[in-house]
Amino acid sequence: MNLKKIAASAACVLMLTALSACGEAISNAETSKSAGTQQSQQAAETTTGADSVNTGTAAPTFSFSFNGTEIKINDESDPIVAALGTPASQFDAQSCAFSGTSYTYEYPGFTVETYPDGSTNRVYAVTLKDATVATAEGLKVGDTADAVKAKLGEPGKESGAFLQYSTEGIDLQFFLEGDAVSSIVYTYHLG
Is the pTM of this model over 0.90? Predict the structure, then answer.
């Protein structure tokens, strides 16, 4: 892994950590989809394309699996985290978007972020950070935007910075650096 990718990954983790902590209240539910979506907020301002979910022949799978554990957005997170095993690192902070504590669990190649829902923690976002992990469709960091579209069809939202596919309550975003996927984020869609 080159130094640029390491620096980008470190910046992403810091951004996720900062946004998981209490910085400023999130007031616009449409543009605050994930604790790590400051990047998507900026990209959403320059979004072009239709609002359709997907015009391709293969519908995206809006969950991620790792070693036999399916991670679905908005599912209870405690059993998922227990099944995944000990994370490489863990961060918790008072949530600004929700009442209670949010958690971020770092695993090889991906992170899982949670949000408090009363006494239950739920999966808020899953971020795929490198090519060691892939979506159910086999898409991974480093793939081209054209490869994503070939498997999933035209995205509902698109800019030079991301491709976004949505279903009720969940967004699947492919962030781009040039024409290459730099991260893949499944997020709970507020609102």
Answer: no
